[in-house]
Amino acid sequence: MTNSEPRARSYISAELVVGGAHMEGIEFPDGEGFEEWLSGVQRDAADDPSGELTEVYVTEHSHAPEYECECAQYLLDHKPYWKSR
């Protein structure tokens, strides 16, 4: 990031789990691009011939990414934001 680029004020952390295996962790500064990414995950899950359970866990952070936090409540309640079935 250059000094001229604006810093994110918040972000979304998304974790993709397929068939019980963690596949990807990704961050979306200010939430930008999350809906497109989720749509792609949903399309891929619908087209998956194996039919494995696909889950997306999301943590919405109300602070900039450079600050440490304990926002990962999803680890405690195990409720996916989206799942394929």
Q: Give the number of helices.
A: 2
Q: Approximately how much helix is present in the residues?
A: 10-25%
End-to-end gap:
39 Å
Shape: elongated
The amount of beta strand, in percent, is 25-35%
Low-confidence stretches are none
Task: Report strand order across the widest sheet.
Answer: 2-1-3-4
Structural class: alpha+beta
Order of helices and strands: EEHEHE
Reported for the largest beta sheet, the result is: 4 strands, antiparallel
By DSSP, the count of extended strands is: 4
Report the mean per-residue pLDDT as an integer: 84
What key phrases describe this protein's structure?
2 helices, 85 residues, alpha+beta
Account of the 3D structure:
The protein is α+β, with helices and mostly antiparallel strands and 85 residues long. The chain is built from two helices and four strands. A hairpin with a 2-residue loop joins strand 1 and strand 2. The mean pLDDT is 84.
What's the SSE blueprint?
Elements: E1 11-18, E2 21-29, H1 34-47, E3 54-61, H2 74-77, E4 82-83
Antiparallel strand pairs: 1-2, 1-3, 3-4
Summarize this, please?
It contains 2 helices and 4 strands; from the N terminus they run E-E-H-E-H-E. It is α+β, with helices and mostly antiparallel strands and 85 residues long. The chain has a 4-stranded antiparallel beta sheet, with helices on one face.
